[in-house]
Design a protein that fits this description.
Length: 175
C-alpha cells in the first residue's frame, strides 16, 4: 500500500512541475511575439530611420516589462543606430547613458530625454504604413510627465511598468 501512495505522490509532484514549465514557456513565447508585432506594425521609408524606430520600441518594451538587462542591450543597439544617422549624435549619447545606468530607475529617467528627441524626429519622417502613437504619462518623473512612442494605441507605460501599466493617454497619432 505504501508503494502505491508513494507512486501517486510522485506522479502528482511531477505532473505539477510539468504544468509550470509549459506555462513558463508559453509566457515567454507570447512576450517575444508581442515585441515582434509591435516593431513590425510601422514601416518607414528610410531603412536607417526604421532601424532607429525598431531599436527604440524594443527599449520601450524592455522598460515596460522592467527588464534591466534587455533595456541595457536595446539602448546599446539604439546608440549604434542613432550614431549612424546624421544629426542624431547627441541623442546617441543619451542612449549610451541609458545603457550605462546602474538601475531601472536611471534608465527610465533618461528615457524621457531620449523620447523627446526621437519624437521630434519621427514627426518629420515619411511613413509607408502603420501609425506611430505619441503617448504621455502625467505622473512620470515626479509629476513632470513623460512621453514615449508606441506602435499600438494601447497604453503600456514604460515609466512605471506593471505598477501603473495603463497610466497615460495618446497625445498624437503620426500617420
Amino acid at each position: 500500500m505504501k508503494k502505491y501512495i508513494t507512486a501517486v505522490c510522485l506522479l502528482i509532484l511531477f505532473s505539477c512541475n510539468n504544468n509550470e514549465q509549459k506555462h513558463t514557456v508559453s509566457r515567454t513565447d507570447t512576450s517575444a511575439v508581442a515585441i515582434k508585432t509591435d516593431t513590425s506594425a510601422v514601416k518607414l521609408s528610410d531603412p536607417k530611420v526604421q532601424s532607429i524606430y525598431n531599436d527604440y520600441i524594443l527599449l520601450k518594451n524592455a522598460l515596460v516589462d522592467a527588464k534591466f538587462d534587455a533595456a541595457k542591450q536595446s539602448a546599446i543597439n539604439l546608440k549604434s543606430s542613432l550614431s549612424n544617422y546624421a544629426g542624431c549624435e547627441n541623442t546617441s549619447l543619451v542612449a549610451n547613458k541609458i545603457s550605462e545606468a546602474i538601475d531601472l530607475a536611471g534608465q527610465r529617467k533618461d528615457f524621457t530625454y531620449l523620447s523627446t528627441d526621437v519624437i521630434g524626429m519621427f514627426k518629420n519622417e515619411k511613413l509607408i504604413s502603420g501609425t506611430i502613437y505619441v503617448q504621455h504619462c502625467p505622473m512620470a518623473n515626479g509629476g513632470d510627465g513623460g512621453d514615449w512612442l508606441s506602435s499600438t494605441k494601447k497604453i503600456q507605460n514604460p515609466y512605471y511598468g506593471s505598477k501603473m501599466i495603463g497610466c497615460g493617454a495618446v497625445l498624437q497619432e503620426i500617420k
